[in-house]
Amino acid sequence: MNVEAILKGKGDDVTTVDTSTKLARAAHLLTEKKIGALVVMDGDRVRGIVSERDIVRTLSVAGAEALDMEIGQVMTQNVITCTREDTLDQLMSLMTGRRFRHLPVVEDDKLIGIVSIGDVVKHRLAETEMEAEQLRLYIATG
Ligand code: AMP
Fold it and tell me: Per-residue pLDDT averaged across 73-98, rounded?
């Protein structure tokens, strides 16, 4: 299973903001869309990523004033991305090793989707169930 198969199921919709978006607006978007991260764009290019963790951290440091800060001050700038061809195993190892839960999918410098740890777990479970079913069939039919 690879990223392409995941995107086929969930689509290519990615919620994005730009660096001047206020933190209050970003928090509102995360809540409204029931997601954990926003990709920060500069035109067509990925400039950063901001997750709920960045927002909580900034609020704990700066207090309520943080709500008026711009996302450019809060985001992670060095975004690790994946490609359509990457496998579930590669995604799991990246997310576990780097301790984050979101991977934007980029092709030819263009954002074409995003994969979250929830998507990875869902597809891994489906894969495991299919393998178990095949084993059951194999044993039952000899
Ligand atoms: P998350 O676990 O995705 O909520 O993110 C934890 C931290 O990692 C936050 O500071 C994010 O900005 C950062 N982060 C999330 N995804 C990525 C990514 N793909 N590349 C770089 N940093 C990321």
Answer: 97
79 in contact with ligand 1, CB cutoff 6 A: yes
Please tell me the residue having the least CA distance from ligand 1 atom 10: 54
Nearest to 46 by CA among 127, 122, 113: 113
Task: Say which CATH class 3-141 falls into.
Answer: alpha beta
Q: Averaged over 21-40, what is the pLDDT?
A: 98
The structural domains of the chain, with segments of one domain joined by +, span 3-141
- Does the global pTM surpass 0.70? yes
| Percentage of residues of the chain with pLDDT beyond 90 | 88
Q: Which atom of ligand 1 is nearest to the CA of 100?
A: 2
Q: How far is ligand 1, taken at its centre, from the CA of residue 94, in Å? A: 11
With beta carbons less than 8 A apart as the criterion, state whether 13 and 105 touch.
no
From CA 10, how far away is CA 118, in angstroms rounded?
12
